[in-house]
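Weekly structure sync - notes
Attendees: PM, LS, DV (DV joined late)
Agenda: review two folding runs queued last week.

Item 1: First target. Sequence and structure tokens pasted below for the record.
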Amino acid sequence: MGDCCTQRKVCCFVLLCLLVAGITGGAIGIYKWHHSGLNRWHGRGSTADFQKIIQERCDYYTQQIRPGARSGNCQGIRQAFTSAFISKDPCKATKEDYKPLLDLAYPTVPCGKAVFWSKTRELAHEYAKRRGLLTLEDTLLGSLADGLSWCGEPGSPDLNYQSCPDWKRDCRTNYFSVFWEALSERFAENVCGTVQVVLNGSIENAFDKMSDSCSGPSIKELESILNQRSVRFICRDNLR
């Protein structure tokens, strides 16, 4: 009788161990599958504390940099920003996804104060700062997103902090790239007066008429296009 009880206890113990091992193995498998899926893109993942950074930058901009700006609803702006891409396929972004955000924080620039740039980030920002001008990154939404990265996953309420689609290696219609395209268009639509463009004339692709950001084959082509539209063109070399 004692041997029978002992055998039953041994059998129950073995079954319990197998059950625990199965549950643990399944959990590990799900974890690995989940994280391998999050790592499938070639770009860097979402910036840590993305929503907190957006909120803090917005508060600072509307309270310190441009306290008179009409777009002072920072909580609404943060929610509209994240709602544009959360729970969605990170490679199926559209400009319409960002329309509520852009309508909430329209990028306004005083006449004659706009500066466009391509492949000259540091120079353009220094140029604008010294002359009291404004680049895209000096607008509210531009300042919020500058230097950050973001994307979500279909059906998930969380950001993907492991990886996000790369514009060249994964897809052009990712939420990071489409955001800057949509914001650039709104910025360009709103400018008036004299518009200044900072390009790098020493490289082969300084202007491209097929690109919103003016990065392509020749400054002369840019001059020709502007002359055809009766827009005054002045080009100055920076020899420093």
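Item 2: Second target, run right after the first with the same settings.
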Amino acid sequence: MRLHQASRMVMESESSSSIFTNFPLISAVIAFAIAQSIKVFTTWYKERRWDLKQLVGSGGMPSSHSATVTALAVGIGFQDGIGGSVFATSVILACVVMYDATGVRLQAGRQAEVLNQIVYELPNEHPLAESRPLRELLGHTPPQAVVGGLLGLVIASVVHLIVRLAS
């Protein structure tokens, strides 16, 4: 009977919480928004042009995917502790996302560069000569993923500190 009461209390407390007080989710969303915003400035610094498409694009410095999943995992760690299955799941998710960004997606982007160059060099009468170029900026270099992860860690820590000071 006690187990049933305890699980009911947990379910009631979880259902009464709001999405606006979900600390890990808020941390992840803020980390994503900041990482994407930073990309606009890093593009301007490197290319001396403003590119607002970077706000929604993939690839570039820092990795918003890494920032998001790291902030989520750290936020869960702060909120629920690091001994539970939810934290373990979020850490594994973060590792898979970062591995994918620096491996599969990075290589797919490099292949797209080569294919675009091949299509560019085709004669005008070739059927593929007028095809749309493939997106080349898909993945991240390891430094971009590491900086994104560090950004996520910092954002979740700052949000956690603000929440603790406010309560």
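Discussion on item 2: The mean pLDDT is 81.
Action: LS to circulate a short write-up before next sync.
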